[in-house]
Structure to design on (287 residues):
């Protein structure tokens, strides 16, 4: 395990992180990637630990598209949205950075030790302001979130309850003068209460990967045209290809309720697999 440290004032200290109100005096790095990785255009993708299946899929899709366009994906290696963001970047063959709220030698949660290894093996970094041996503690994670926001040009919140830690990351990003995006969610879902609140106060809606890339100043790439790994989305896409053109027709063809149809269509639109125009749905990819 290669561990190094950069100090504030060093030429290798991340320039964006140095601009926040309370930058860490030093940053421990685990991995063989050079510190310059932390100066590449980066997006933070964060959200609920106990996220929905929809949240997992959207986090992975947005991360995959961002990484494919050359962005570094930053997150906190937590369960749920964070882990899916890292996995999405890895799936695209891109770089991702995990920021810990404990010592640089720890994998937290322990269940993500394999994910941490994959991040490092793929040319990414695990970083922390805490030296080896420091135990995780509840107060360290909000402090960790300022680093996640500070390393990124923009922060995307996928799902968040009203008092989610992801909203703390968004608050830090706003204080840093960075752009905050939020994925719109169902108004009846507690997991969308935080993201929808961000939209009410002016966060940019993240409805496609192009929204994220625009916030990073990167050129939008053609849709990946990858069908989401979701059985309902796959069934809906098959029904669209068979001729179903409205949500009601899709519901009858698949036997799935209106809410699940809407979620599946959102995933398929993000993947560039379908387009919805004035209530009509059409496939945009070859069979």
């Amino acid at each position: 395990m290669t561990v190094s440290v950069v100090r504030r004032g060093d030429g290798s200290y991340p320039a964006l992180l140095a601009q926040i109100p309370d930058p860490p005096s030093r940053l421990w790095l685990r991995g063989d990637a050079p510190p310059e990785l932390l100066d590449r255009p980066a997006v933070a993708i964060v959200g609920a630990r106990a996220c929905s299946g929809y949240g997992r899929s959207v986090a992975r899709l947005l991360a995959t598209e961002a990484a494919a366009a050359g962005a570094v994906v930053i997150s906190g290696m937590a369960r749920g949205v964070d882990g899916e963001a890292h996995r999405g970047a890895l799936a695209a063959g891109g770089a991702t950075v995990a920021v810990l709220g404990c010592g640089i030698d720890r994998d937290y949660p322990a269940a993500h030790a394999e994910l941490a290894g994959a991040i490092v093996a793929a040319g990414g970094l695990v970083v922390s302001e805490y030296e080896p041996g420091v135990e995780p503690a509840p107060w360290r994670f909000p402090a960790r979130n300022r680093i996640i926001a500070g390393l990124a040009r923009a922060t995307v919140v996928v799902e968040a309850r009203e008092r989610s830690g992801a909203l703390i990351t968004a608050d830090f990003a706003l204080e840093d003068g960075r752009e905050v995006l939020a994925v719109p969610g169902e108004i009846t879902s507690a997991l969308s209460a935080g993201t929808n609140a961000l939209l009410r106060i002016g966060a940019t809606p993240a409805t496609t990967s192009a929204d994220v890339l625009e916030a990073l100043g990167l050129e939008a790439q053609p849709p990946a045209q990858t069908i989401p790994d979701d059985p309902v989305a796959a069934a809906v896409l098959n029904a669209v290809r068979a001729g179903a053109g409205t949500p009601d027709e899709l519901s009858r063809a698949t036997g799935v309720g209106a809410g699940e149809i809407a979620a599946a269509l959102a995933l398929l639109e993000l993947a560039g697999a379908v387009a919805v125009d004035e209530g009509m749905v059409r496939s945009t990819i070859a069979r």
Residues 110 and 154 are 28 Å apart (CA to CA). The chain has eleven helices and eleven strands.
